[in-house]
Amino acid sequence: MFAAGIAAGTSNTVVGSGTLITFPVLLGIGLGPVTANVSNTLGLVPGSAMGAWGYRRELLGQGRRAVRFGCITAAGGALGGVLLLTLPAKAFKTIVPVLIVAALLLVVFGPRLTAALEHTRHRARSDIGIALVALVFLTGVYGGYFGAAQGVLLMGIFGLLLTESLQRQNALKNVLAGVANAVAAIVFIFAAHIDWAAAGLVAGGAVLGAVLGARVGRRLSQPVLRAVIVAVGIAAIVKLLA
């Protein structure tokens, strides 16, 4: 569990999908799906915070945006946490691979699509548009419910709708994914059974992994980072379908 936490913390900081590493491990030691999910969500919170801190330089000038998006994500994360405790997982399991495919297409073709639309009324925005608000809220809901590949979804959305470099988008993604995890974890603490030993081991590993991920991820060029995002997204799809 500790080793899985390290791998998940690294993955989450660089691109996302760390849940796809820790969640199967928690299931493998005998935890039920809901207990494994809520324990994993809580365990990954410290790593998310450390990952955001590791990208603090890329967050400069994005403070107001991060606060606004963070509030939107918090509302979505709270709703997602409630949904996890009240609804069956079948609907989300069906839609998740579709969402990840859509995100990967946005990551790969988003910049080209934005460039192709330069001669139309479409413009990627540096501020907050209605579409961006709605999509960030929905990824917050998903992050609070399960969260695997939430980072891939956010990067795809940012790539199409936000005029920032990939590294600055990644920094913002780390903040928002951490907010969704933290808010959902608060809901789970009061309303669900948590395996505190498992959560603690994942948390310890995730913090170390986040430090490593920040050092590695910030040195990647945009093409390499985009390739890593696509590779992780494809692995997420294969894992979920399997």
The SSE string, one letter per element, is HHHHHHHHHH
- Number of helix segments? 10
Give the overall shape. Answer: globular
Measured between the Cα atoms of the first and last residue, the distance is: 21 Å
**pLDDT < 50 runs, ≥5 residues:** none
How much helical structure, as a percent, in the residues?
over 70%
Strand fraction equals under 5%
The radius of gyration computed from the alpha-carbon positions, rounded to a whole number of angstroms, is 17 Å
Number of domains: 1
Structural class based on helices, strands and sheet pairing: mainly alpha
Main sheet makeup: none
Mean pLDDT across every amino acid position: 83
Strands, count = 0
Keywords:
242 residues, mainly alpha, 10 helices, globular
What does this structure look like?
By secondary structure, this protein is an all-alpha fold. It has one domain (2-241). The protein is built from ten helices and no strands. It has helices spanning 2-14, 19-28, 33-54, 63-86, 90-116, 130-145, 150-161, 166-191, 196-217, 222-241. The chain starts with a helix and ends with a helix. The model has no long low-confidence stretch (mean pLDDT 83).
What's a quick, concise take on this entry?
The protein is mainly alpha-helical.
Describe the secondary structure blueprint for this structure.
Blueprint: H1 2-14, H2 19-28, H3 33-54, H4 63-86, H5 90-116, H6 130-145, H7 150-161, H8 166-191, H9 196-217, H10 222-241
